[in-house]
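Extended Data, record Multicopper oxidase LPR2
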Amino acid sequence: MEMALFFLVLCLGVAGVWGGGDDGEGLFRASKLEMFVDKLPEMPRLRGYTVRNGVLAAGNLTIGMYEKTWKFHRDLPRSRVFAFGTSRETATVPGPTIEALQGVPTHVTWTNHLPSRHILPWDPTLSAPRPSADGVPTVVHLHGGVHPPHSDGHSLAWFTSSFSSTGPTWSRPTSSYPNYQTPGSLWYHDHAMALTRVNLLAGLFGAYSLLAPHHESPLRLPSGPRFDLPLVVFDRSFLSDGSIYMNSTGNNPQIHPQWQPEYFGDAIIVNGKAWPFLAVRRRRYRFRIINASNARFFRFFFTNGLHFVHVASDSVYLPKPVTSRKFLLAPSEIADVIVDFAQSQTDSAILANDAPYPYPSGDSTDEINGRVMKFVIGRRREVDPSQIPKRLFRYPAPAVHRAAMTRYIAMYEYESATGEPTHLYLNGLSFLERATETPREGSSEVWHVINLTDDNHPLHIHLALFVVLEQRELVDLDGFKNCMMRLNDAIKCRVGDHARGRRYTVPRYERGWKNVFKMRPGCATRILVRFKPLGPGTKFPFNATEEPGYVYHCHILDHEDNEMMRPLKLIP
């Protein structure tokens, strides 16, 4: 009882610096908002390169993080947010889309102009930064980027306003992105230790497109700002005054006064507007769909039967286009799809969602969170210069026989005596314990990811790409889990005898190289991880072995913030 009171007092004390919460009084019901009344915003676009005397050169951007207000819906009061932009006036939620060119470096100086106090509640019992002065710690990670460790947005490389306080692995204010990787869709977001969930809820994320016109133009995919659009999808709840709502009471308040295992909002937001609409022509469009939610999975489909043509998954093109009527997108995953509105039999189409939350065994969606946005389709037919090619890009096939090592990565969720989650670990270790995954640069490894929890965990590996080889159900799961909880050793617990249940088919649109994949509960997922460029050569064009290294983690942000993340240290 004394310990519980201590944590509650500590939480209240820190809230004075980090922001207050709300117990739900004044919670605004999203069902009161009329859908499809706000036009889909087009986020500002920033060039990540320059042209000097007709020659392409590296781009130098300064992008700040600001507190401001944002209008999420016509009938909702303005909300306090944190937003990326080149100034407070131009900052947006999500932030500006950075358009970079393959092979042309982009240098971004990320500046923190945030206030001394956070706008959302923060749990002091997590391993969050303790700045020496007031301020909100942040650090930016380019998700899907291939870049040196000092520019990866390491969780302990945080900094506060004017760099008055910095984390133990912070080294420089400017991040350098070589863009020496395959063209595709990426996104950037805050990555501060134990604060990622609240910093993203506040609005700190944006899209990043890496373009290669010389290679992509011959494909004749829909292109240009009118027909190639990022759709950044996320969920939020609000109070009646427009404030973003986050529960300030934890599910285990005696242990974590504020932390909840997952955040779900009842309003679905796309590019900063709740249930927006977009007027489209009867032709093909390309949508780079980014799931920027903390924990919500989306299973997208069109209510009028339109289909999707997948051309890329996460940051890498597929070998050839793949058609689907419905697809599942986990937090942080990117689906790069073509939609041909000329095929529509109706003058409108609603993009919908039917993924349970938490996924896969949670509540069903309803008429509120089961709707995403509306497309209003013009009636006039037109000549469409774009096409869907038969083939896209050919990249190296997975060479399992050349794997240098096999590793076993076990996912654990720990519970209190009341059965409520307390924290989550990878391989039974916290983030701050020494790195045990130390692959050699230029190598590939086979990882068996063993999910011993009831949740589907989207695993994200920084720097690397991987191919999913197999996903198998674990038989006698309880017996195997009991052994793993005691020994934390997959070999001694005879994982091979258990990973022989039902084999789950990897969707065709996810059979290419990825940086995130959904680790199904009660299953062992075998992946081939590549620690070298996806192309010629075995070395990165920078020192990938330097400090502070990289990380891998579950991308449900509430899990990541409560220790479901581990260091990843490459060796020469």
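Summary. The first strand starts at residue 27 and ends at 28.
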